[in-house]
Amino acid sequence: MDLIQIAESDYMVKTKYPAFKAGDTITVDYKIIEGNKERIQQFRGVVIQRRGTGLKETFTIRKMSGSYGVERIFHLQSPFIESVTLNNMGNVRRARIYYIRDLTGKKARIKEKKL
Description:
Blueprint: H1 3-11, E1 25-34, E2 37-51, E3 58-65, E4 68-75, E5 81-88
Antiparallel strand pairs: 1-2, 1-5, 2-3, 3-4
């Protein structure tokens, strides 16, 4: 093994998240600390991409807030992520669906994967 992978394996947190990919709709319960108070905020949206491996693995979620698109990048190994819930599995052909940024209305819908 590479020395970097050995060092990263010591810092990896064993988390149980559902298997999700681009196109899936997920809800992330994220811990927010404001002053001396902390609360859990839910961020629900469509996964645009997953990138990286090991400690550096991240995923980007996009949601619509009113008429504005909001994107947020989460680190998969972050201690602030309480849970990840898979709400809907999408049927997309690409691993990174950046094209959804330009679509509006019914065109921005993602087909649901039938199991």
